Amino acid sequence: MAKRRIFTAPSTQVVPIATGEARLEKVDGEPDSYVLHVNGVPSSSITLSDPARLDFEYLDWMSRIIETALPGGSLRAIHLGAAGCALARALDARRPGSRQTAIDIDPVLIDHVRTWFDLPRSPALALRAGDAAEEVATFRDDTADVIIRDAFSHDSVPTRLQTAEFYADCARVLKPAGLFLANVPDSGDHRVLRDEIRAASSAFAHVAAASESGVLKGRRRGNVIVAASQAPLPDAALDRSLRTAPTMATWLGADELRARFGR
C-alpha cells in the first residue's frame, strides 16, 4: 500500500477563508509542528508526525476527561468546531476504530485543513461544513459517545451554541452514558461560565468543570471545560488525571460546582 502523503507547509501561510483569514505558522525548532490561527485567534496546534500530541492545555484536559470518563475501545464522537482537528486526530490515534464527525462553519477552512494536515478519511473522520447548532439537530437519538463543542466566532462562543435548546439537542444525541464537553472562555467574572452551567444543567443530570485554579477563582481569564452527562462522572479519577497534566487543572464535581457557581 502506498504511503499517504504528508504535506509540509512553509514557515507561514496566510489564506483567505469564508469567515475571514487563516494563518498557518511553523513552530520554531520543530520539524513538523504548526499553529493554525483563525481570524487572529490560535485555534489548533498540529504535529504531523505525532497526531496524539496535544499542545493546547485545554485540549489535553479534554482528552484526559474523555479517557477517564469513557475508558477503552472505539468512540462515536462529534466535534462542533473543527479548526485543525487536533483533538479528532488524537482520538483517532489513541482509539483505533473510532468514527468521528467534525463540523465547521467555514467550508474554505475545511478544504485547507484537509490539504495541510492529511486528516483521517471518512468514516474515521468525516468533515462537514455547516452551522453547528443546525447540524447537531440532524443526528439520531442515542448515537454519540461524546460531543465536543469548541466553536468560536473570533474570541467568543456563538450564542446559538449556548442555549438550553442546544444543550437539549446534544443530550438527545448522546447515549445514556455519553459525555458532553464545552470549551468556555472565562473572562474572570464567570458571567459566561454561569450561563453555560445553567444551560447545561437544564439538559443533563450531572455537570462539572475543569480549569486552572487561578481561572476558577477569578484571578485571571482562561479556558474552562464544562463537562456534562446523564451518568455520574468519576470525580476522584478525573481530579487525579487533571492534576498530573503538564498544565495542572482542578476538577470541580457537581457538588463543588454548585457550591461555587450555583445553577
Automatic annotation (TrEMBL):
Residues 80-181 form the Methyltransferase type domain. The keyword Cell wall biogenesis/degradation does not apply. The keyword tRNA processing does not apply. CDD domains: AdoMet_MTases. Keywords: Methyltransferase, Polyamine biosynthesis, Transferase. It comes from the Bacteria. One of its GO terms (biological process) is polyamine biosynthetic process. Gene3D superfamilies: Vaccinia Virus protein VP39. GO terms for molecular function: S-adenosylmethionine-dependent methyltransferase activity. This is Type 11 methyltransferase. It comes from Brevibacterium casei S18.
